[in-house]
Amino acid sequence: MTNPNENYELVRQIHTVLVLHFIEGLKQSEIATRLNLSTSKVNRLIAQGRKLGMIKIDIESRFQRLTDYEAKLVETTSLTAAMVTPTVSDNPDTTLQQVGRAAANLLLETIRDGDVIAITGGKTVSAIVDNLTTEQGFDVTVVPLTGGVQGKYFTDVNHLATQLASRLGGKAMLVHAPLFAESAAQRDMLCQVGSVREVFDLARKANIALVGIGSTEPAGSSYYDLNPVPEADRKMLIGMGVVGELLAHLIRDDGAVANYALNTRLVAVAPSELAACGQVIGIASGIEKAQPIRAVLNGNYLNALVVDEETALTVLGSEERSDHDA
């Protein structure tokens, strides 16, 4: 029969060791010296404490609400992961950079040597590149998911691919073709050019795809940086049910690619082809992106989403916003 006094003495010793290790922060070797025990004995006592249920770790964060929003996004959508950044400023550029830093860190946690990283253009992907720093080089290949548009720095996907590859220590393969072809036939011809086909074939099977989510609202819409259109055409797009843009394709609220002539002239990977990628990470910043995000989620195009707090609240709906404002 086990002696109750012996149990008590053992539990008391385990308690002492656990307090010294987890509360006072002593190393196992320091505890061994203080209590005149061997380090292996201290290790066994800690293990016994775990088995007896004497260790309960409670981690608190002043950003717990963000973790809750992330869990809610995963719970209510097809996402397997979400990252929500705190809104620390009313300045949209500051929020954009915050999202870019978070996405850059997620990328560094995800990539492995030998990976292919496929990217779109856009302000959010540009923010990732701007905020990416690493002391370690990676043997990766960065490829565009679309043809190029000359003009603003963030619309030139070849430029962004080159920058990202340089920062990671990898190489870039570029698409030397315009994003918008003159006709569907020219688009088909360009996509069959050997160098273009090679890059897009890699992009379709990329280990990681980083995709911006575009809004078709006039204010701040990068889609119109790619393709300036008259106000009348913008109203027509709204009438067609177009709510956002993914890989330069205009999409409807249900996530389907809109029946819009320009979509047939795009030198780009189709949104449906993202399904063959290992992980598709969507990045968006600003509440005007809420409806486009919902559309992209309805289309089941993403595995992960990086977004700012206010936009996440808008995507999740009024119930979470009421809790946030309370």
Attribute tags:
326 residues; elongated; sigma factor activity; Rossmann fold; 14 helices; Arc Repressor Mutant, subunit A; alpha/beta; nine-stranded mixed sheet; transcription; disordered N terminus; 13% strand
Compute the number of structural domains: 2
- Discrete helix count: 14
What's the shape? elongated
List low-pLDDT spans.
Answer: 1-6
The CATH class of the largest domain turns out to be Alpha Beta
CATH architecture of the largest domain: 3-Layer(aba) Sandwich
Mean pLDDT: 88
Got a strand count? 9
Biggest sheet details: 9 strands, mixed
Helix vs. strand class = alpha/beta
β-sheet strand percentage: 5-15%
Rg over CA atoms, rounded to whole Å, is: 26 Å
Could you say what the CATH topology of the largest domain is called? Rossmann fold
Q: Can you write the helix and strand succession as a string?
A: HHHHEHEHEHEHHEHHEEEHEHH
Helicity, as a percent range: 40-55%
**Termini gap:** 58 Å
Domain Sugar-binding: 62-316
GO molecular function, one term: sigma factor activity
Protein name: Crp/Fnr family transcriptional regulator
Family: Belongs to the SorC transcriptional regulatory family.
What does this structure look like?
The protein is α/β, with parallel strands linked by helices and 326 residues long. The protein folds into 2 domains: 4-51, Orthogonal Bundle (Arc Repressor Mutant, subunit A); 64-325, Rossmann fold (3-Layer(aba) Sandwich). Helices cover 46% and strands 13% of the residues. It contains 14 helices and 9 strands. The protein has helices at residues 4-23, 28-35, 39-51, 64-76, 92-110, 123-130, 157-168, 184-191, 194-204, 223-226, 231-239, 290-298, 309-316, 318-325; strands spanning 81-85, 116-119, 141-144, 171-172, 208-215, 242-246, 249-252, 279-284, 304-308. Strands 1, 2, 3, 4, 5, 6, 7, 8 and 9 form a 9-stranded mixed sheet that branches. β3, α7 and β4 form a beta-alpha-beta unit. α2 (28-35) crosses α3, α5 packs across α6 (123-130) and α12 (290-298) packs across α13. The protein is elongated and about 85 Å long. The relative contact order is 0.12. Residues 62-316 form the Sugar-binding domain. Residues 16-51 form the RNA polymerase sigma factor 70 region 4 type domain. Belongs to the SorC transcriptional regulatory family. One of its GO terms (biological process) is DNA-templated transcription initiation. This is Crp/Fnr family transcriptional regulator.
